[in-house]
Amino acid sequence: MSEANFFQDWDLSHWNYLHGKPEGEADFKQIPEDFVVTEKLPFELTGDGENLYLLIEKRELNTQQVCQHLAKVLGKRLRDVGYAGLKDKQSVSRQWFSVQSNVTQELDLSGIETDNIKIVETKRHQKKLKVGALEGNGFSIRLRNVSNKEELLARLEAVAEKGVPNYFGLQRFGFKGNNLNWANRWADGESIRDKKIKGFALSAARSFIFNEVVSARVEQEKLFTPIAGDVFVLAGSNSYFTGELDESIDRRLAERDILLSAPMVGKGDAIAESDALEFENTIVEQHMSWNALLAEQGLEQQRRVIHLIPNNLICQVQDNDVVVKFDLPSGAFATSVLRECINFRVHEHENTN
C-alpha cells in the first residue's frame, strides 16, 4: 500500500439513499444547544447500593473528559467511573455516569458542577454502569436557515413511515475519515501503541464494511426484501437466526418482530448462508486487509440491523428553523436519519469529528 493511502481524505458521501438525495440545505450544530441528546437507561435504579448514579448535563465536553473530572473531584480511580456510551462533544448531552462508593460513604458533590457540567439527578444503584447498558437516546435537533422547509417536512414524514438505512454516522470514521487511515496503517504492519487510536481504527473499518453492504442492498432494493440465507435479528435483542424464506418470515418482518441484518465482520465463519453470503462476500472480500486485522484482534462475527425507524418523530417550524425530535435505539445515529432529509451546509471552520 502506498504512503498516500495512509493520509487520504475519504469521501463518505457515496452511500445510497433510501428516499433519494435531498435538495434542501440547513445549518447544523451551529451552537451546542442545536443538538440535545438524553440517554435512556434500560432498567430502573434501585435507590440503594454501592454505585452512585449521576445524570449529568454536559456542554462542549466529551464523555471521557467528564469521567476524568468526576474521578478527580471525588477522589476516585478512573476505573471507578462508569458510563453507557460516548456522546458528541459539540452538543448538550444528558448522560448517566456511575461512581463506585461505599454505601456508608456520602460523596461530596459540591465540586462537580462547572459552567459546562450540571447535575440533573442522582440516585444509588447496586451495579456499576457498563458500556452498552443503554436502551436508547432521545434527540432534539435544531436545523437552522432551512432552504426548503416543504421538502424537509415531506421527507421527515416519509422517514417516520418507512425509516432509513441504519448506517453508521460519519463521526464513527473521524475527521475526513482519518480513522480509516489508521486502519490502513495498522493493517499494513505499522505498530500502533495508542489503545484509543487502535479502538477507533477497528471500529471504523468494521463500520465501513457494514455501510458498504447496506448501501448495496439499498441500491438493489433489498433493504426490506429478504435474500435466501439472510440472517434475522430478533427485535430488541442481539439474538439472530437463519431460516427458510416463507410466509411466516414475511409476516414477522412486516410486524418488525424480526429484522434483516448485515455483517459486523470478525474472526470465524460468516453467519449468512446461500445467496445472502454470496451477496455479502462480494463486498466484504474487497477489504481483505481489514478483515484480517479484525480477526487478528479477536473481534467476533456479529450482526447489525440494516433498517431503522425513529420513534416519536415530531417537528416544529420556527421561522427559518425546524426543530426535529425523535428517539433511537442504542447504537443508532441521528445523523443517519437526518441525511435522508437535508444536506448540511459545510462551513470551512468546522471539524466534524
UniProtKB/TrEMBL annotation:
GO molecular function annotation:
RNA binding; tRNA pseudouridine(13) synthase activity
* Functional description taken from the UniProt entry: Responsible for synthesis of pseudouridine from uracil-13 in transfer RNAs.
Q: What is this protein called?
A: tRNA pseudouridine synthase D
* Keywords on record: Isomerase, tRNA processing
Q: Which PANTHER family does this UniProt record tie to the protein? A: TRNA PSEUDOURIDINE SYNTHASE D
Lineage here is: Bacteria, Pseudomonadati, Pseudomonadota, Gammaproteobacteria, Alteromonadales
NCBIfam families, A to Z: tRNA_TruD_broad
Query: Which PROSITE patterns does the protein's record reference?
Result: TRUD
- E.C. no: 5.4.99.27
Q: What class of enzyme is it?
A: isomerase
**UniProt family annotation:** Belongs to the pseudouridine synthase TruD family.
One of the protein's GO biological processes: tRNA pseudouridine synthesis
GO cellular component, alphabetical, reads: cytosol
Q: What is the active site of this protein?
A: 88
Query: What domain of life does the native source organism fall in?
Result: Bacteria
Per UniProt, residues of the TRUD domain are 163-308
Catalytically driven reaction(s): uridine(13) in tRNA = pseudouridine(13) in tRNA
Keyword tRNA processing, does the record have it?
A: yes
Instruction: Name the Gene3D superfamilies on file.
Output: TruD, catalytic domain, TruD, insertion domain
The record's section on SUPFAM superfamilies has:
Pseudouridine synthase
